[in-house]
């Protein structure tokens, strides 16, 4: 008899439900011939959002010269372009040597935590969060500690909750701004409060700013690293979202601020960068052209632009469903609607997502997949064109109507000793 081979115990508390069990079910349904409307992932290309043509042409023309390894941190020219971009964002003191190119920001997020954390070290992560952050902390031996973002305050982080959760074991704080999954954009006043906490407690600020150009209604983004030079910042960005280039896996990490006490940590980053040899070279070649070229994202997010129109449509349609409330996003590609718990008594929101998929062939991600504490939220992307978006949210509305009716009918006839279930 073969010995069972188990996964690492480090994966016990790791989830990534954006590509999780519900997606597996959706794939099985597609193989059976069903057409699924996918609102689960910010994969822009499949919805007709193309990267700027000049990026594509640059990669094609240079592809023959990309077979070799590059410097472990990346090619000089794209790193210099990132350096110039940090200057535009008013981040002081960044040199080319402070910049690491990666296979998307995701690789660099994991690298930054691997280089820092020992077993039992804590990192403050927002709830809800982009789940890679929680997973990467756990896989690095650390303990993710979730601070709450306040839906009643447009999903801004609760500074008092952050303060209360800092312990001697806390090493850093993650700031996802603009935010995924809520679409929140943080004001300078809040960012300064976070910087002050980091300064007082000697914390690293990990700033995920991948959506910093995907802004609506004339909003502007402040890079938190521009607000101080006496705190260590590690900032992440890339081409995936602002330049609709998810598959190119072209991201960067910038170390800035008070670097002198962090010499040993930076040595660790350099070691890990060398161990993976380098980021993919074709993706690196897209960075300089992207940052220096016409910023077509502005057309998409401007009033009347496709992303702005679809955001407005999704907000209106979701808000019109009884028992559904949603904060209108100021940035990014997502909404995080709330379901009234009395109208929708959900015990298991993954099961809720399964049922929506089975009944209406719409794929969403349940709120607990973003480390939200209660099963009363879900995330949708508003990337499908207006007709498909209208159809998808119409199906969600129909499903929720049936859900309400089932529970309204079922509640009076259930015997007192039988516990109510989310689905009869």
User: SS-based structural class?
Assistant: alpha/beta
Question: What's the helix count?
Answer: 13
| Mean pLDDT over the residues | 92
State the major sheet: 8 strands, mixed
Secondary structure: helix percent:
25-40%
List segments where confidence is low: pLDDT < 50 over at least 5 consecutive residues: 409-424
Strand line-up in the sheet with most strands: 2-9-8-7-6-3-4-5
Q: What proportion strand?
A: 15-25%
| Computed CA radius of gyration, to the nearest angstrom | 22 Å
- Number-wise, the strands total 15
Q: Element order, helices and strands?
A: HEHHEHEHEEHEHEEEHHHHEEEHEEEH
What's the topology here?
Layout: H1 21-31, E1 37-38, H2 53-62, H3 76-88, E2 99-103, H4 104-114, E3 122-127, H5 131-139, E4 143-150, E5 156-157, H6 159-164, E6 170-176, H7 188-201, E7 204-208, E8 232-238, E9 250-257, H8 263-275, H9 281-292, H10 297-301, H11 306-319, E10 324-325, E11 334-335, E12 338-339, H12 349-360, E13 362-363, E14 365-366, E15 378-381, H13 386-413
